[in-house]
Amino acid sequence: MLLLFAGLSVDAQLLPRQQWIKRYGGTATDVPFAIRFTADGGTITAGYTESKNGDVTASASTEYWDLWLIKLDKCGNIQWQKTLGGTGYESARDVAQTADGGFIVLGETNSTDGDVVKGYGGTKDIWLIKTDGAGAVQWQKRFGGSGLDIGNRIVTDEAGNYIIAGTTASNDGDVKGNHGTGGFTDGWLLKVAASGNLLWSKCFGGSKNEELMDVVLHNGRTYVAGYANSIDGDIPPTQKNYDVWLLALDAAGGKVFSKVYGGTQNDVAYSMALGADGSLALAGYTTSDDGDVTGAKGSQDYWVLNVSTAGKLQWQQTLGGTEADYANSIVATANGYTIGGITYSVNGNVQAGQGGGDYWLVQLGTTGALQGQRLWGGRGNDHLRSLIYHTQRNEWYIAGNADSRNGDFSFSRPYGETDFGIIKLKEPVAQLKDSVVCAVAGFVPYKDTLPDGCGFDSVVVTYVPKSLKQPLTNKKNRDSIFIGQSITLPSFTDGRTVWNAHPALSCGDCASAVAKPGVTTTFTATTTLPDGCVSTGNFTVVVLNDAVVLTPSAFTPNGDGRNDFFGPLGKVPDDFRIEIFNRWGQVVFRSTTMNARWDGRYSGALQPQGAYPFIIYYKDINNTAHQQKGVCTLIR
Q: Rounded to the nearest 5 degrees, what angle is found at the Cα of 209, between the Cα atoms of 208 and 213?
């Protein structure tokens, strides 16, 4: 069979099927906080490790938690991994690929030795690391003060600068203007040049605790989401306990607005996404069931809220069961939003929960309606922490820490207390292929699944029957000549079609076969496929012994595609001319070729219904002049 591509489509399931699920780590605790796409089709995952074995190659100087990066190819194979740290605690909260193919890593540290640049020490500082494409450190910077300073999210603006959202309890060093006192935290926003130099540092908050968790850049504004506990400073006095907090800033980092959303209990946003309609969707958790929160399911629920870029609450949705559930990642798609997080519930909105903590993925429509869900886990605590989506490839990656040793995370290899648990979802591309067959009646359509280079399902092919085309399909298959003349037959460029041998044919498989028959003759072209299928087509050469002029008596030029033109049919050797007259003797149409016919107009104007005399002049094969006269009727 010859396979021809006839179409290409994507199976539009809300939640694609699982392609693979893998664990990475050593014998201790390994936790990822972020997974991101890389330009080579793979991913990079960032978090921390306590392991010193297995997949982890630890530095000799590191202790406790070390920052851990894993670079994976599209099959989930480790291309390289890197640990960085000192004798204290280090972790990576976020990572992104840079324009030069390297990576910018948003980490945290309280070490002042080992791989870590010296800083304030004693408490955690933001640790910003630039690596090359293989994970080698090119430079590192440390930002903070004498208090606790943490970065949660890093994004790159159009100029290549880094925007970092986090929290700070400092009011010295790189931190100025902290509203909190006595160890309370402000939301902290930093702008860092591509070189690592701090451009500006700003604190936002009140006298209690605030934290900024995620950043969206849109139309010259910076939108930052998190939570607020104050009722003063930058926080609206309507804040009730811990509320979801949305802060909008202008290009210079000046405050445009500060809004809070929630009820009388705790409401927190961990992640934010820009919707297809230009609105903002925030995801986190709520323990409230009043104020802005409706439909609570249990003690702690996923809370997803959608707001305009002016901060107006447009809709909200609570999801979960009777136990604790919280979302920490949201992705916008063309059809709505996909939210990932953790569920401890086995009832309510949660289907087939396995107990403990499970990865829980839910799909919402553009107005918040629940459209689909999926769970992964076992009897242990399995926490989804990061979710990404590649639109063009229809690929999803989920990263979290897998604690279970059964269920979805059952593996023969021994792992540690908690490992990086990474899942790839990808819906195989659906292809419709024509199967060119000798006889359509004997063909049974069927489906086949083809693997990609990693051995996973990649393409679902449906084969449909299609008749073998004849050689002269879409080509002229009839022409006429006068006796003694020759004609070039249609040519073929596929190298598989030849003209059957005939005495009146110059050649069979040449590029331009010339025919010179003495009588009307039909020539046959044959296409032969490698598997033996044969198809034939005919071309007829009509041999005329003299001129042929056939003239109709009427025509109807109404544009319906039938009988719209008037003129003779046939073929003449030479000196053809036709003239058509109106009732006043004016020539309304004149032509010297039989292919040009009258459309019923004169000087661009439609002519009235009636009879129109005509004269036709031509010479026959013996060069004798002939004349035909008649009348055609124009009918409207």
A: 155
